[in-house]
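dumping this here before i forget
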Amino acid sequence: MSASLVIQTSFLGDTVLTTPLITELAKRGPVDVVTTPASAGLLANHPAVRAVIPYDKRATDRGVRGFFRVAMQLRRNHYDAAYLAQGSMRSAALALAAGVSPRAGFATSAGRRLYTRRVEYREDLHHAARLLQLAKPDAVPAQSDIRPRLYPGIPERAAVDRFLALHDALSETPLVALAPGSVWATKRWPYYADLARALAPRVRLVILGAADESSLASEVCAAAGDGALNAAGMFSLLGSAELIRRCAVLVTNDSAPQHLASAVDTPTITIFGPTVPTFGFGPLARRSLTVGLDTLACRPCDRHGPRRCPLGHWRCMRDVGPDDVASRVLDIVTAV
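structure:
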């Protein structure tokens, strides 16, 4: 059996999408994962992960001294291979300093010169499939192999139980989650309040978000009326995944909640604006769909989402109306 090291220090969603790779590698032996402190909790309870090693490159592990402290910690574990799921030169150098070889990563990555095996970055594949190819470069993964998995535990399930019981939301009325936030301002669809107003008579709404998105969540809750639940900042990432698991459908932007939903197989309606699903970051849960203006000539304009619309009109989001999204939500709810 061989011990594998996976380095993934990118965004939360990237960590979720790395779990199929981790699961594949666990068939060969123990797997340890280096990730950010923010993402580390996502991998708690995951049966394919032996250990999570947080790398706080902006604080406690900042600079050369912190880099080598983490590298020496990794070196003591004597890994048989490293998989660079995040392609920076720093991540590649960390694997090299830890004495791990072979080192596999994408041929397009910034750290590629330090890899011993370079894997083609397939633009035509979902990113979860691309990451899985780091371990199986000669195979195109089946759809069933690339859906990510997270494992909320007893504390997360108990926290959600308490939250739903406190708000009398354990009834037969379908629970629909809305996640109006995003780190990237141009990826925030502006009509969540209108959507909430349209859906409130038919379903029970729960609004998700980080603690710093509580004001936005409050606005959406206010539009929905007294029955809406504001869960912004209430749960850990795994707790949020558990709450999403209880919902009939999630409506979200191209952001982390979409990937949490994929990992617990909750149908998802993702609203894409400046980005597009063909970048490889669309929803993977069953019965999911995406919404966007496919005929708009200026789309896509950015891999992540610019700070502001380059043309000033932001039509990619403004022209996606709430009535169409509401209709799609109710189609999924009634089909459950």
